[in-house]
Structure formats: C-alpha cells, structure tokens
Known about the structure:
The structure holds two protein chains of two kinds. By secondary structure, chain A is an all-alpha fold. Chain A has a single domain, classed as MetI-like fold, CATH 1.10.3720. Helices cover about 75% and strands about 0% of the residues of chain A. Chain A has helices spanning about 5-35, 40-50, 55-65, 70-80, 85-110, 115-125, 130-135, 140-155, 160-165, 175-185, 190-215. By secondary structure, chain B is α+β, with helices and mostly antiparallel strands. Chain B is about 20% helix and about 35% strand. Chain B is built from nine helices and 20 strands. Chain B has a six-stranded mixed β-sheet with strand order 6-7-8-3-9-10, with helices on both faces. A five-stranded antiparallel β-sheet of chain B has the order 13-12-11-14-20, with no helix packed on it. The longest helix of chain B is centred in the middle third of the chain and has 18 residues, at about 190-205. Chain B is elongated. The interface of A and B includes residues 134 and 138 of A.
Amino acid sequence: MDWQAFWLTIRLAVLVAAALVFIGLPIAHWITYSRWRWKFFVEAVVALPIVLPPTVLGFYVLVALGPRSPLGRWWQALTGHTLAFTFEGLVIGSILYSLPFAVQPFAASFAAVDRKLIAASSTLGASRLQTFFRVILPLSVSGLVTGIALSFAHTMGEFGVVLMVGGNIPGVTRTVSIDIYDQVQAFNYAAANQTALVLLAISFVVLSMVYALNRRVWAVWPWK
Amino acid sequence: MAVEIEHGSGIHTGTSVPVSDGADALTVEIRKRFANGGGFELEASFAVPPGITIVFGPSGAGKTTLLDCIAGLATPDSGRIAIAGRHFFGDDTNLAVQQRRIGYVFQDLALFPHLSAEKNIQYGIAALGTSERRQRTNAILQSFRIAHLRGRKPDEISGGERQRVALARALVTDPCVLLLDEPLAGLDAATKSNIIDDLRAWNQAHHIPILYVTHSREEVFALGERVVVLEDGRIVAQGTPHEVISAPRQETVAQLVGFENIFNATVVSTHEDRGTMTCRLAGSNVELETPLVRADEGATLRIGIRAGDILLATVHPSGLSARNVISGKVISLAQHDMIVTAKVDCGVEMAVHLTLAARDSLHLQPGREVWLVVKTHSCHLMKA
C-alpha cells in the first residue's frame, strides 16, 4: 500500500471538505432564500459536476489554471509557477468537483427550517447573519455533517479530475485512486485490491454515518 | 345611543385600560394588493391606542397580512404605519423588521426548538449586558409564571406553557407594539383566561398597543376594549365590542357575529322622549319596541335578534320589564350539542335557544302555544 498516496489523499479530502463549508454555506443560503428569477441557472451550474464527465470538468479546470488563462497568469505572477499539476491545483479542481455534494445537503436542510422561525428571529431584532448562525445553522446540523461527509468521501475517490488537473506526481498529486489505476496497469492486482479495499471501507463508513445521522429517530441526537 | 359595557364571558373583571390621547397609539393606513390572490386587496385604516384591540374576522379576511405589514414582514403598496411619531412605513421610509421593535407572537408560536425556554426568551436581548439580561429574564419568567420551565425545550412543555414562553419572549424585548396572531387558539377557557390575566397585568405597567387577531366571537367580548372587524380585506366596523357586535349597523357584521333572526321591518312610530320606537315586522302584525335610531316613520330597517336573547314562556307572562311579548306556536325543536333550537311561528318564524332542562321541564312539543319575550335592547337595528 502506498502510504504516501494515502495520506496525500486524506489531506486533500480534509482540505476540500473544509473549504466547501466556507464556500458551500453561503451558496446554499443564497440558493435557499434568493427570490431572483434566474436562480435556477445558478442551481444548474452548481449541480453540473454531478452529471458532467470528470474528464470534461478536469479539462476546463486545467485550461483555467494554465498559463494562458488570467487566473493562471495571476497565480504565476504571485508564486512563480502555474497551478496545473500542483497540489493547490488539485484542491481547486476537487472543490469544484465536490461542490454539489456539499451545497445540496446544506440547501436541503436550510429549506427544511420553518420560515416562521426566521421571521420570529427578525422580529426579535436579529440580523440575517445572526439568524443564520443562531437559528438556521443549529437546526441544519445533520445537513451540514452530511455535506461535509459526502464531499470528503467524494474527494477521496475521485479519479478523472485528478488525472486531468494533477497528473500523477508521487507526493504531490498522486492520490489513491490513481495509485490503484497504476497498480492495475502493472498487473499488480494484490496491491490494487489492498488499496481498493481501504477506499471501499472508508466510503462505507462515511455513508453509514450519513444515513445513521439522517435517521429520523436519531435526527435530534446529540443536538437535542 | 347609550350603551352599557358588558363583558360577555366574565373573563375580564378588572379595570379597563384607559384610552390614551393617541400620543403613543399605533396608526395604520395601508393598501396592499395581491396580483395572484384572485385580486385580493387589503385596505385598512385605523388607530390602535394602548390596550388590547381585537382584529376580528373570518379566515381569509386579511388579518395575518395586516399584522405582517405592521411587523415589516410584508410590504404594503402604499400608506403609512407609525407609532409615537416613529414611522415604520411611509412615503420614503420602510423600516427593517429588526428596527421596528415589535413583539409578534405567531399563530404556531415559532419557538426555537433547539433552545430552552430561557434561551428562547433571551433570544431578543442577547445584546444586553449579562446582569441586565438575567434580571429581565427573571422578571418576565415571574410575570408569566414559567420560572420552573426555564431549562426545558419547547417540545418538553405543554401547549399553554409554550404560549406563555412565546409571549414572554416577545415582551422581554420591551416592544412598542405587540401583535398576537390567534395566540391562544386550541387552549381551554381556563388556561386562556389565566394567560390573558397575566398579559393584562403586564400591560398595566407597560401600556403598549396590543393587536389581538381572532376569529372567535367569545374572545372578542372576553378580551377587547376595542374591536376592528375585518372582512374581505376591508374594515367593516370598529369600536367597543358592545358597539360593534351588539348593535351592528352592517348586516355583514350581523351575520359574522351570528344573529339567528334577521327581519325586515317598518318604523311605525318613534318615541324620542323614551329613546325607543315601534317597528312592524314585514309580512306580519308583530310589532316590536326597539331602541331609537335616526329613522323616519315609514322607513324600512332590518332587525337582528339573537336566538339566545329570547325568553320562551308557556303561560302568558305578566309583570315584566321586557316590552315585547309575542304569542306563537312551536313549529319544531332541534338539538345541537347542549342547545335546543325551537322554531316558533308568530307571524314570522323566530329561532329561540333553550337548554335541555328548559325543554324538558316545559314539556315543549311542536304545536304548543307559547309566548316569546324580547327586551327592547335585544333588538339590533341595521340598515336595510
């Protein structure tokens, strides 16, 4: 088992899940409460990575991060190297790829919060931000955890985007799924199986956690 | 027309809150149209002095929309909402909900389910210093007798207790107006009157305008110093409950408050010295003495009489203060719950409410000859 790839993948997944809390919460809030008539376009864009082939997403992220794009040039001027085929580039690609897996559970749990509670909060003088942190978020804990767990697990197992954006540089962009691919290419089935089992176990544990958390009888625990 | 103030169900026996000079009254003058509500339009203009004002009307009359406009949760198309010189809404102003300092108790209370009763109550006073926050919380917990519930979550306390927590949460912020949207629906009468007593006691000290929305007729008499009757987005009557409900001049109000007997009548003669007049019910020889209203002899009016205001006798009564004794025959008797409705033919058909005991002890049967007794002031006159 390639432990270097394993820890790199864990690091990537943790970073992406953490970043998605900060990026996903405002987006989910906006999607839930905005009355803008073209809102559905934004919803479609956010959901796009679910149906888009990872290679297509990876291709455009690669182009966007490359030295010919404004973002790539800006990053190059700032750091001296491009984002493509770096760990940072991988983080950006993964955030985009896992965005719907964070935003959709967040938005679903926000939408389940009774609007009357939000109205009550504002008549009691709370600003929108205070209402968010004191009412909406505490009542959306299960959606929050679900979003974090799903984006973590989804990042753990991603392949196409990583390959397109990161390549296969050991210690930098070589993740476990790419490691498995390499092992299979080298007919090293035993090693591939070992790594695959670890991924399978992690995915199973995370999903069990998500479903357990969303079980109605436990939904109030331990935040009751 | 002089009217005596009566309190229908005897819930409120204390002093009534004096009507102020209007200095700190809430004035509302709004229009709001709903394009996709079948063209529903709310158009209301009234003042709410300190004390309890009831907003009464059937569901769909626009009561909650009215409260939402005052709270700032809905925006009127035009108009003005102000209290004590402070404009909530006007030509150029539309104060944010947060800045209006309004207490609003919603129909379903909207207590925060993840917070204890105490944390719910402290929600609106988070910005205060610790000692003042604690002191205010304790005071309001005492006032509404819920100190023992402070650590409990809303789903761990009873309906009446939740109502008390919701009231305390709104009042602890020291609001300048209190809006109550059917806050006591679903409570038994005793719990209801206890809560109302505590609310009145609180308002003796604070003296703010309270708007209390209800569609219950009993609550209008039990609670309100004033009542505003809303129907189909419009105010159809306002005044003291007695003025509005006991002597409605609008038949819409009359039907709303439930007159079982409504008749067309002609003024036969007026007796200005005694404050009464005599009217003949259309299509009959029945003449009733009624309170005097501004009407000429020969004018047509409508008279409403509640079935519960008519006495029924099986022998000709005498020595009565009531001026109207009419003879007739029982047509039918029908029972609903604990009330018997007797239909009596006396030239016109009148409905009379009786108790079960009265029906049995009088041995009432269809065909029985009876006399109906109606007080002058039980005859309510309306425009025809």
